[in-house]
Design a protein that fits this description.
The protein is of the alpha/beta class. Helix content is about 45%, strand content about 15%. The chain is built from 19 helices and 15 strands. The strands form three sheets. Strands 4-10-9-8-7-5-6 form a seven-stranded mixed beta sheet, with helices on both faces. A four-stranded mixed beta sheet has the order 1-2-3-13. Strands 11-12-15-14 form a four-stranded antiparallel beta sheet, covered by helices on one side. A hairpin with a 2-residue loop joins strand 11 (about 360-370) and strand 12 (about 370-375). Helix 4 (about 40-50) packs antiparallel against helix 19 (about 460-475), helix 7 (about 115-125) runs parallel beside helix 14 and helix 15 (about 335-355) packs parallel to helix 18 (about 435-450). It is globular and about 70 Å long. The two termini are about 30 Å apart. Bound molecules: pyridoxal-5'-phosphate (PLP). Pyridoxal-5'-phosphate binds near residues 480 and 481.
Length: about 475
């Protein structure tokens, strides 16, 4: 699978650069030792257990290359940040130009031209919103939106969904629908209430208290790739309007074309009061996020000159981040990546559904655009059921590693489990993938799922080994998508 040319490119890069490139090539093999010693040792143990410790040395588009130059198809895309693919030349040129330009970056007592242009460009996609506040990360965008909502509405309450993921800082963590992330870190922010996703009756009940400033929701949940029922988001918008609650759409993962539309909410025709963007906006190089909001909300928060900096971040709106956002939006348009995500996402869904109908352990294939989940479930046949139960008794969701590990080892595909104790394997590739990549995905999943239905067999021997090590490591692969 690896061409000579690709191996030569990896070597060429490290030869040319006498600074950071040669430091990387000379010392990259120490990475696991370094991390075990100085950083998060558990992460290294996870990687070794699942065989992801191959030493990636280069990234290009939708691919990663290990130190032997072997090419992998990356369906993690850095938890979704590489929408336009890794190391896109347009992005690289733009960032290089910023560095060469001696712009007056982060003056602080001035406003940035690039930030103004990026805000203007983003708002063209959401004509019902008028204002933008930039932050450095998704979680910071969530934090900002919580503050905006509480101040604008003058109520303390926040409602979020079961299985929600909005980041891991305290405000965002207080809206997290999975106890696993919160255990041991309490107490959380007060006045945060969980409702089941897709349950309008529960939402009605929560909002009817008229104590709720905002309902924060991912249009498609990242954990589990949970799709809303057809009437859910429109119903939620109606309830929010009825009770004077803001609707905040967290499009940090789903936004900028991931689901085949610029925003996922466009599939259901709703117009939230606040939209949060990040991940793909960064081009994968410079962290950035944006809070898009209605004018009156901003007016309530930044309401006097002495409150002009009542919320802000030192690095937000820096030139590299703004330039990365502008270059990314241009690439999305010129390469028609949103259309590509819609077209190839539909192809993958159809193909994977066709394949999966032959296998009893596949419960559902769901998704939109290039955000796809394959959910596995308890088998009917006796032989399989015994093995499944054994694995699951050790650790719920462990079965999914029998899919992701061979996918990497035998097919050079990186994929993830869509959350703690989840039975869903998630595909989140760069939006630049091709028809050939789809063939690669389809044939590999077909083979790996088929193998997982053979007991006894190699995959189930792997399962037993995993079961022995499970408590130590496995669920780390579902950490932060
Ligand atoms: C929907 C959603 N919101 C918020 C976040 C948090 O973003 P960050 O990791 O940049 O803080 C994520 C990250 O995975 C996400 O998927």
């Amino acid at each position: 699978m690896t061409s000579r040319l690709e191996m030569d490119r990896t070597r060429e890069f490290t030869r040319q650069d006498s600074g950071i490139g040669s430091m990387f090539s000379e010392r990259e093999s120490e990475r696991y030792v370094q991390h075990s010693r100085h950083m998060n040792e558990m992460m290294v143990r996870v990687l070794k257990t699942i065989g992801y410790d191959v030493g990636f040395c280069r990234g290009a588009g939708q691919y990663l290359f290990d130190r032997a130059g072997v090419r992998y198809l990356d369906l993690l895309s850095g938890w979704g940040v590489f929408g336009i693919g890794r190391n896109h030349p347009k992005l690289r040129d733009t960032l290089t130009n910023v560095l060469a330009a001696d712009f007056p970056n982060l003056v602080q007592m001035d406003v940035s031209p690039l930030a103004g242009i990026l805000a203007e460009t983003l708002l063209r996609y959401t004509p019902y919103l008028d204002k933008v506040l930039f932050t450095n990360s998704g979680a910071e965008a969530v934090e900002a939106s919580i503050k905006l909502a509480r101040k604008a509405i003058g109520r303390p309450g926040l409602v979020y969904c079961t299985h929600a993921f909005h980041g891991l800082s305290y405000g965002a963590l207080s809206l997290n629908g999975d106890d696993n992330f919160r255990d041991g870190f309490g107490p959380m922010l007060p006045h945060c209430f969980e409702v089941p996703f897709n349950d309008l009756v529960a939402l009605d009940e929560a909002l009817a208290t008229r104590q709720v400033a905002a309902f924060v929701v991912e249009p498609i949940q990242g954990k589990g790739v949970n799709i809303p029922d057809d009437n859910y988001l429109a119903g939620a918008q109606e309830l929010c309007r009825k009770y004077g609650t803001l609707l905040i759409a967290d499009e940090i993962q789903t936004g900028l074309g991931r689901t085949g539309r610029f925003l996922a909410v466009e599939h259901w025709g709703i117009e939230p009061d606040i939209v949060l963007l990040s991940k793909t906006l960064s081009g994968g190089h410079v962290p950035v996020a944006a809070v898009l909001a209605r004018k009156w909300i901003f007016g309530k928060v930044f309401d006097r000159m002495d409150r002009a900096v009542v919320h802000g971040l030192t690095f937000a709106g820096n030139d590299l981040a703004m330039a990365a956002g502008l270059a990314t939006l241009e690439v999305l348009e010129t390469e028609q990546l949103i259309e590509n995500a819609a077209r190839l996402g539909a192809r993958l869904l159809t193909a994977l559904r066709g394949i999966s109908s032959r296998y009893e352990m596949v419960r559902e294939v769901r998704g939109k655009g290039l955000m796809i989940g394959i959910e596995f479930g308890r088998p009917r046949s006796l032989k399989l059921r015994a093995s499944w139960s054994l694995l699951e008794s050790v650790s719920t969701g462990l079965f999914c590693q029998l899919i992701t590990i061979p996918l990497c080892k035998n097919h050079r595909i990186l994929a993830q489990v869509a959350g703690h104790a989840s039975h869903t394997v998630k595909l989140l590739p760069a939006l630049v993938i091709s028809e050939q990549d789809c063939e690669w995905i389809e044939s590999s999943f077909d083979e790996v799922i088929a193998d997982s239905h053979r007991v006894p067999g190699g995959v189930w021997s792997l399962g037993m080994t995993l079961a022995r090590n499970a408590r130590k490591t496995y669920d780390m692969t579902a950490v932060n998508d």
